[in-house]
Structure formats: C-alpha cells, structure tokens
Amino acid sequence: MGFRIRTEKKEHEVEIVKGSDTATFWGTPMDPVEYSKLIKKHTKTKNKHGQLTEKTDFTALTIDKVQKVISRWDILDERGAVLECSDENKKKAWILNADLINEVMEKFQAIADGTAEMEALEVKNSESGLTGNSRPTESPAKIA
C-alpha cells in the first residue's frame, strides 16, 4: 500500500454552527502559488528616497481571497431571504460579518494545510475515548 496525496483540487464543504443555526459553505481552498499571486496583485512597491517599500492592501486581499475560495453557501439575509453567493454579496458578507467569514476561511485553510482531517479525527477519538495518531482512510465529508 502506498501513501496517498492530493493531486487535484476539489470543492469542500464546511459547516459553521452558531447557537441553533447552521450554515454550510462550499469552496476550493487556495494553494500557496495562488495565494502568492494574490498577495503580489494587492502589493504596491514605492521608491521613496532611494528606499523600496512595499505596502499590501490587506482588505482588498482578503475580499479577493473570499471571492475566489467560496463558491456556494446556504445563508439567508436579515429578512430571511436566500442570499445569492455573488462576489458582491461575498464582499458584503465579509465587511459586515467578518467574524463568520473569517471562521469559514480558517476552516478552508485547515483543509488546504491538511490539518482539518487530523482535527476531525482528534474530536472523534476524544468522543470515543480513543487516543493515538492513527489517521482515517477517508477524509470526512464535513468539517464542523
């Protein structure tokens, strides 16, 4: 048996639970090359008195990343209507609900880093009283 690694990108699902409400988000985590390109896109270099300085617009960088990573969601607006998963709504969602969207992005980042599977296993093991570093043969469908 060989060691299996990811060789292609795929869409993942994450759930966020707040009280009795649950929201599901689908997206494709960014790889390091994509993120590096995004940083370069939002970083300006200036020559000031012979010194090169770089300034990154982290707000624009974060909004762009949210728009690229999240592909679908099942969330409602404050009136209870289904909120379309458009780039404009993703931007508004992050600006007005940064804590929620940042939590979603952290979960997608954990998937990209390969840590989400281990966290899910640790939770499962702690619930069943198991310990150790065994890894599941399949990654969980939902990371909550």
By DSSP, the count of extended strands is 6
The succession of helices and strands, N to C, reads EEHEEHEHHHE
Going across the biggest sheet, name each strand in turn.
5-2-1-6
How many structural domains in the coordinates? 1
Spans of at least 5 consecutive residues whose pLDDT stays below 50 are 130-144
What is the mean predicted local confidence, pLDDT?
84
How would you describe this structure to a colleague?
With 144 residues, this protein is an alpha+beta fold. It has one domain. The protein contains 5 helices and 6 strands; from the N terminus they run ββαββαβαααβ. The strands form 2 sheets. The chain has a 4-stranded mixed sheet. Strands 3-4 form a two-stranded antiparallel sheet. Strand 1 and strand 2 form a beta hairpin. The longest helix is centred in the C-terminal third of the chain and has 16 residues. It is flat. The C terminus is likely disordered.
Short description:
This protein has 144 residues and is of the alpha+beta class.
Reconstruct the topology from this structure.
Elements: E1 12-18, E2 21-27, H1 32-41, E3 43-48, E4 51-56, H2 58-69, E5 70-73, H3 87-96, H4 98-113, H5 116-128, E6 142-143
Helix pairs in contact: 2-3, 3-4
Looking at this protein, list some descriptive labels.
single chain; 144 residues; alpha+beta; four-stranded mixed β-sheet; two-stranded antiparallel ribbon; 5 helices; 6 strands
